[in-house]
Amino acid sequence: MANGEFNLLGNFNWLQKSDSEPNYISPEMWAGVGIILSCFIPVAHCHYDYKDALTKSLLFLEAQRSGKLPANGRVPWRADSGLLDGQLANVDLVGGYYDAGDNVKYGLPMAFTVTTLAWSALFYEAELQAAGELENVRAAIRWGTDYFLKTASRKNKLYVQVGDPVADHECWVRPENMETPRTVYVIDENTPGTEIAAETAAAMAAASMVLRQVDHPYSRRLLNKAKMLFKFAKEHKGTYDGECPFYCSYSGYNDELLWAASWLYLATHKGIYFKFITEEAISANVDEFSWDLKYAGVQILLTDSYLSGESKFENFKAQADSFVCSVHPQSPYRQINSSPGGMIHLRDGANTQYVTGTALLFSIYGDILAKHNNVVQCGNQQFSPSSLTAYAKQQMDYLLGENPLKRSYMVGFGRQSPTQPHHRGASAPPLPSGTSVNCAMSFAQWFQKNAPNPNVLTGAIVGGPDRFDNFADLRWDSPKLEPCTYINSLAVGALARLAVHSF
């Protein structure tokens, strides 16, 4: 479980299984050899098999699915789970995604995962098509939106979580065999949750644009629900603390409201959303993009509209530039720390979400600026579009193996990839359906066992090394070894761009 923090500074500143038998060379080892050969040249020209990394990043999201799995599932060790979810509230809440290495379904990070996947599907549609992954991305988005339609089935009510997190964290068990309480959490007019309602609205609005050409009636359903959820979020303001201490919103809900309104405006071009963006919404200069803080994403999203002629969005260009100036390593206004090896480091615990998030935003913004022949100005330092996309590449390359330890932080990709992800489903062997697990013994049986997971969690990007580039592949070190859906969803667009445009 990734627990975020939010620091105020001024205004919001701041495979397949590998064999260990002798003389056996696995596909992953061959991939590692290829990476070594292709990188035995200056690092600026280092080239990885980004298409393979993209494919595997989507496989991880498939491994996170809850519910009745399709017959064409590509993760053989996963099976149906959570088939009674929602029963305690007399509502069907089967489906959706587990957020990380546990068996809880949290609404806020799940919605952010879908929104960012949809953004990549829209902005890098051609690249995903060329890489052969567009349909898999659409399927990943729809797996989330099918669930969101269930969670928003009742007016002025949104089901935002399934699973008791305390009980869940007291049992190390695969979701297929869990017997922990599937408690249902809900927001309504009396118990508001503006962040979650608005983020779910953003996810549905963005997804409606992705799916409009392939299933127009479904797209319309998503858009109608997004409109209703945004209205609910705006009229019943309040922070929902039910997902704390695991997903506490430190940044407040103004960023989610602006984020949702922006996606709704792009999906509808309705004046009501334009008015909210330009007259009612609050924005701020920030130096991170995450499941908790969306301002930088909004600013880059709306800068494209500004540079295309929407003059009232001018302020968002200045704020998007401020984000770049706060993060770019050569900026005189830089505020973000990097490890000695060059990895962005904001905080321990799923830190790689900031790496992939920055890579996505720098990729998209670089391409937007290139399209409009524009640049970023940071004091007396000017940054070209290619400077931004090069930094995005450097951050992704770090995760794939260009780092001081020369190891990959994506499971099943490259050299010395993680073998012990902090993940219940991957670390516990498949058990017969209906098997009762002794929770008291489960940690000794599977969690504390210092050995590779029996199931390879292909494509998972783990939490990553500390700010000094230190890393040990030990399951119980959850800040470094736990993967999260939003780490991977943020990587998809950046990897798609690299798969097609990096030579």
TrEMBL record:
Coiled coil residues, start to end: none
MF (Gene Ontology): cellulase activity
Similarity field: Belongs to the glycosyl hydrolase 9 (cellulase E) family.
Enzyme class: hydrolase
InterPro entries assigned: 6-hairpin_glycosidase_sf, 6hp_glycosidase-like_sf, Glyco_hydro_9, Glyco_hydro_9_His_AS
Keyword check for Hydrolase: yes
Originating organism: Aristolochia fimbriata
Residues the record marks as active site: 422
EC numbers: 3.2.1.4
Pfam families tied to this protein: Glyco_hydro_9 (PF00759)
Keyword Hydrolase: yes
Protein name in UniProt: Endoglucanase
Gene Ontology biological-process annotations: cellulose catabolic process
Reaction it catalyzes: Endohydrolysis of (1->4)-beta-D-glucosidic linkages in cellulose, lichenin and cereal beta-D-glucans
Signal sequence residues: none
Domain Glycoside hydrolase family: 50-495
Keywords, ordered alphabetically: Carbohydrate metabolism, Cellulose degradation, Glycosidase, Hydrolase, Polysaccharide degradation
Gene3D superfamilies according to UniProt: 1.50.10.10
